[in-house]
Amino acid sequence: MSLAQLSLEQYSRLCRLIYDQLGLSFDDKKIHFLGKRVSARMECLHLDDPSDDLMRLAYGDRSGSEMQSLANLITTNETYMFREFEQLEAFGNACLPEVVARKQAQRNRNLRIWSAGCSSGEETYTIAIIVQEVFPAIDDWDMQIVATDIDEERLVMAVAGVYGERSMKNVPADYLGRHFTPQGADWRVKPRTRSLVTIQSLNLHDRLQMRKMRAFDFIFCRNVLIYFDDASRKAAVDHFYNALNPGGFLFLGHSESVGRISSAFRLRRMGEHLVYMKPD
Prior knowledge:
By secondary structure, the protein is α/β, with parallel strands linked by helices.
């Protein structure tokens, strides 16, 4: 399908379908981007008219598999180990010790972390590494990191836990031997670090799925909400608030903020970084 075949009306319909089901918002500048992705789906489905693909998405996709296939093509997956290190430093050096100390005082040895929009898993395994490095006693705790994403192809990569040079460029040398095993030119996450992580598919725009996410001490959702409009962003942030334990922390990307859409969180300086905390 050439881009000229995707009319403005069809593009508008496609954007509404994507927004209604995924919460992702696209403006008119993305017509070329979405047109290429729809072309790829039409080629796979042997369709000639974009109206047929739109009809399939709107009325013939009861299982959601076609929208899932499109979601795999339109989500951005720029990620690597130890990305935006300043936040991770605040997490490991300030936020994690605070939460651990509070839980120890309560004789509570459960620690739960949610990596939302985990893509192929680099952020998730980075978190698992940091927890083990700064908190060696984690072996005596009930520890779980839940990693979720809407892109099922990326989740397959996260489950495999095998990464190339680009993903590994910022990993400290002494961490490689402790947390990774060489695999040709790549590196595989060792079983101990992998065992801390549970990986599952989740649509941040799905209210029923989101309501099941509860009792987390930390939520990382970095560089995901930039693809949402204000309404979808507010809905996601409200769900994150409900999913956090009192005193829990929310980490967003550097260019993201909840200030305009929610006053429920308390902004705190932890180390050299500002983070959002759910008040006790």
